[in-house]
Specification:
Layout (H helix, E strand, L loop, with lengths): L25 H30 L3 H34 L15 H6 L1
Helix pairs in contact: 1-2
Length: about 110
């Protein structure tokens, strides 16, 4: 059995990953979150397509799509983490009291890791 041709396996084009600047502005945070949302949406699409391909018996293609979904998962998590760090630095750069931090706009899991 041969693998499907590369035309059936389009290269995934990951969305550009934004790099956090040392002093973040609120607008950058939203760009990171939007990029992460697009990665999560892409992940969901790859996994749905993988399930469909698997149910049709197209096992190699399903495995390929699943791998692409895993890549999108990794990219989404990395981008979410950048957003978290970005907004945390922006909102807390002026605090001298290390006990007081601003966790607004943080996702729960990310806030717990800060």
């Amino acid at each position: 059995m041969t693998l499907p041709t590369s035309s059936l396996f389009p290269l995934s084009t990951p969305l550009p990953l934004l790099m956090a600047s040392p002093q973040a502005k609120g607008d950058e945070y939203h760009k990171f979150r939007e990029s992460a949302k697009e990665h999560w949406d892409s992940r969901r699409s790859y996994f749905q397509k993988a399930a469909t391909a698997y149910s049709k018996g197209e096992l190699e293609y399903a495995a390929y799509l699943s791998d692409q979904g895993k890549i999108q998962t990794k990219l989404a998590r990395e981008t979410d983490e950048r957003a978290s760090q970005n907004i945390f630095k922006a909102r807390n750069k002026g605090f001298e009291n290390v006990i007081t931090i601003d966790l607004h706009e943080q996702h729960v899991k990310q806030a717990m890791r800060l």
